[in-house]
Amino acid sequence: MRSVSVLIACVVAWSSQATGRPISTSSAPVSCSPITEATVDDCVRLNQIQVLGTHNSYHIAPVPAMLAAIGPQSADIEYTHRPLTEQLSQLGIRQFELDVFADPIGGRYATPAALSMVPGLTAPGSDLSRPGFKVLHTPDTDYLTTCATLVACLTEIRDWSRQNPRHVPIQIQIEAKDGARKDARFVVPIPIGAPEFWALDQEIRSVFDEDHLITPDQVRGRRATLGEAVKSDGWPSLGEARGKVLFALDNTDEHRTAYLQGNPALEGRVLFVSTHPGEPSAGFIKMNEALGEDEARIRQRVREGYLVRTRSDIPTTEARSGSTLRRDGALRSGAQYVSTDYPEPSPFGSGYIARLPGAEQRPARCNPVNAPAGCRDEWLEPGAQAATGPYPPWDVVVVAHRGLSEGLPENTLTAFRNVIARGIAVIELDLRGTADGEVVVLHDETVDRTTNGHGAVTQLTLREVRALDAGSHAGQAFRGERVPTYEEVLELVKGTGVHLLLDIKISPVLNKARVVRLTERYGVVLNVIAGVRNVDDLRELSALNPNLRTLGFVEDIKSIDPFVRAGADMIRLWPEWIFADRGLVGRVHALGVPVWTTAGTRPRADLDALIRLGVNGVLTDLPEVLAPLVADIRARRR
């Protein structure tokens, strides 16, 4: 029996080397229907997740005097990233981009021309004098970096990876740079060709052991080409890829040709390359544009099995304008790597930020295009909750968002009765005006989504709205449920002690005076909070009844101050803002107002993190999850 065991072990070892893939000796098949937390490592592959990356991940903006010397084009380089370790641990970044310049002797870029161009600049450190590839954006003028050598950058990533071995795979994109500028003051970079690329591979392997890497050889296995392997066998599973890194070449010009020289299917190489489908090296594609038809093209490549990198913003453009069109298209596209300069709020006051939708505090999410059914974001990198620390001394207010709970139809009396029965403190509901001036409870501008009718609420009379079925969309058990009026809700909660948070939609036919008068008639002014979306509505409601409390549904971070100055009693912030800027809640508290947030269907772990970060109230679609959490926190204080 011993000889048989030895033979099996030898066969397993040979197979692992030949295919480049870890070989399981288990004969028990894994069921992926449904996927569970226990099976996610086997049922989700490397290309079925989406992560956020940073563009020029090492970059530090030049000092103001240097920016002025560079001129108008300096607007594109006015961004700074945290050190790589902080990006990994605090921002959840799992993809990096490093620009490299060849410097085999050392010192070629150690004395930037900027030192003689702008008085008072500090000379770079001694790392630029060492032999090896250098990491910087532009020699002489834009050379500030958090890690000056490739070895230093990679060592930082490697050490963090060793300390966090369950992380999802990290992609590191390398751009080889050797362009010279027509100015005698500036250094001429060393051209990067085939010999330099072999030196690059060797330098990477000097930092990462082979079992720490995902290489083209491993993915290709016994197939003739990488493209064939991707199509036939797919990428490694999440379990095979955890704790590892893979590299890709950003260049698609003569540098790519040099890297593929003699190795058309990337035999023996470290980096994947961006190339066209059908090429022997096809597996990874850089597709920078994600607007319009380009979004659909990315989605198609993702469905075909390729890894795709795209970008959510062009340097400082969206950060200054606040436009999210490119970002939203990139995230929808399913590109596995979405690169940004702004994983934290833009410093230009636009409020622009790029985070993974629904997973803002997580390093990865299930890919929106090709993730298998049942995949859950919190399973991808367990324990990656960024928010820790003590709970605040106050009890967080539990708010039933649209009265939702356990699949009940939103904004209906049935849902509200369930909230009251559960002892939830606050019901949030949406108010809109009908064509004949009545106030009804409905979220959308039209009745299409939540009823069996069609059309804008403002074009329908109360009688027409009341004739619609507002329950069947949630299940036949709720057939015949009607769209309630605000007055019916006031009648329902009378004497229960339940508070109401009104989301007063912006509408030309919503009679805010009628809302206030109905609230006064039922004697619940002190139990109602009016949520408003602009300062004018806030002032109008406060003038109608100064005792009516108000909450500002601010559309961006820069709107907080105007709402507070106008007298808002509390501010609603989105979770993604809070997770991206851990000091934001504290700064709003310093203005003298509490912070509420809309968490929707976020799981308990996210709710816990939001509470630790200091929010005062949480609007949730899952009060059955939040309420026990709040009770548990209260019990711990005793």
Note the overall shape.
globular
Report, as a whole number of angstroms, the end-to-end distance: 61 Å
Number of helices: 25
Task: Tell how many strands the DSSP assignment holds.
Answer: 19
Low-confidence stretches: 1-27
Q: What's the gyration radius in Å?
A: 28 Å
Key phrases:
disordered N terminus; 32% helix; alpha/beta; 25 helices; 638 residues; single chain; globular; five-stranded mixed β-sheet
Brief summary of the model shown:
Helices cover 32% and strands 14% of the residues. It has 638 residues and is of the alpha/beta class.
Explain what you see.
It is a single chain. The chain has 638 residues and is of the alpha/beta class. Helices cover 32% and strands 14% of the residues. It contains 25 helices and 19 strands. Strands 11-12-14-15-16-17-18-19 form an eight-stranded parallel barrel, surrounded by four helices. Strands 7-8-9-1-10 form a five-stranded mixed β-sheet. α12 (293-303) packs parallel to α14 and α16 runs parallel beside α18. It starts with a helix and ends with a helix. Residues 1-27 have low confidence and may be disordered.
